[in-house]
Specification:
Elements (H helix, E strand, L loop, with lengths): L9 E4 L2 E6 L2 E5 L8 H14 L7 E7 L1 H12 L7 E5 L6 E3 L4 E3 L7 E8 H11 L3 H16 L7 H17 L10
Parallel strand pairs: 3-4, 4-8
Antiparallel strand pairs: 1-2, 2-3, 5-8, 6-7
């Protein structure tokens, strides 16, 4: 058990740091943490709130490097290359209501086990440089994309992709981020 910070439970499990932020657990599985790693955690929690994730719903964000995400991509998608984000949904919400800047889960449903979002920090840093974004902003944009997948959004068709991009844009605007382009 690691030292506890006031108000933020921290657990050490198999050399991974897990931070529990009410409805969102955050796992760092990289050798070197960003200097402002707490800002990444706060923004991810804000993002979950914008999506309507409630305190009794569960979602996990795992931050890793190239090797781990490539292994997951190969195992679960049969694609042998690195990527920026993977999403592993569990319970798919039955109803999603979209507000002006928010995607909201339908009220009154049982607590949801939304699933896991795995973000490749190294790829996010490379993309941020390429896209002219701050790494934190690129991270939030990529995490938003993954979280929308947990909620059942996809981009298999042009129409689905446009709807997903619109939700991503609304979330980034609501967080005050000016990300012109993100991802690969």
């Amino acid at each position: 058990m690691a030292d506890k910070k006031p108000g933020v439970p921290v657990l050490l499990i198999a050399s991974a740091i897990i931070i529990v932020l009410t409805m969102l657990s955050f796992q760092w599985r990289v050798r070197v943490l960003p200097r402002n790693y707490r800002a990444y955690e706060r923004k991810a929690a804000e993002l979950a709130g914008l999506l309507g994730v409630r305190e009794d719903d569960e979602a996990c964000v795992t931050v890793c490097g190239d090797r781990r995400i490539r292994s997951l991509n190969r195992k679960y998608r049969r694609v042998d290359e690195t990527t920026d984000v993977l999403a592993f949904p569990c319970d798919e919400p039955r109803t999603i209501k979209a507000g002006p800047a928010r995607v909201k889960l339908a009220a009154g449903q049982q607590p949801l086990l939304l699933g896991d979002v795995v973000v490749n920090l190294r790829q996010v840093e490379r993309q941020a440089r390429s896209n002219g974004n701050r790494p934190l902003d690129e991270f939030v944009a990529v995490a938003a994309h993954g979280m929308l997948h947990l909620l059942g959004f996809g981009h298999q068709t042009t129409r689905e992709g446009e709807a997903m991009e619109e939700h991503e844009r609304r979330m980034l605007d609501a967080l005050g981020l000016e990300v012109v382009e993100f991802g690969h």
